[in-house]
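Narrative summary of target 7.
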Amino acid sequence: QVEFSSLHFLLHTKALLSTISFLNGALLPQLSATRDPDLGKQPEKTKRVKTASKGSKDGDIFSFKLFAMLGCFHVEVCDDRRSIADIRVQGIDASVVVQAKQTEVFARLRNILVTDVDPKTIHRKAVSIVGEEVFSFRLLLFPGATEGEGYGDTSRVDGKVTLRLGCIQIVYLHKFLMSLLVRAHASTHTHTRAHAQTLTRT
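Modeled conformation, tokenized:
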């Protein structure tokens, strides 16, 4: 079981742009490269020998269990002069339970909140949630449920998926959005000019 009460990060616009530039330079060449045709080939699968069932005791044995919880993921976006935005992702739950006859995967996100920190703004919440949660996802897999005699039984399934989506409310704040774009553009221009001066000196 892994549990974090909260994680707080201070994200500068220059650092954000540098990270995006680095990821673009690192990932794009790999995505555009041609794949080796031999990579797509998979080795031949050996025949699986089906063992006899051990009864209801298999339902009490867990091969793997993992529970992870994060109370709050908080990011404050700023530049050299002041804070720009406050981003909070709250209530992240995830779990994986593996048994002989069943595998369960669960994930849930309760809240997302993006706030304009300018004290003069009227509508502070740019992104918020209406309802109990952003989404909840549950996947149930039943290995071998439809094999053999179970193939003709329509009540048996290999898996079940349950997805519940909440409502995200987005308020378009023109001043807030333009503030982010202007500061990002200014940071990019400053970084480009500094890089050009460095190349000129060398």
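Residues 46-56 have pLDDT under 50 and may be disordered.
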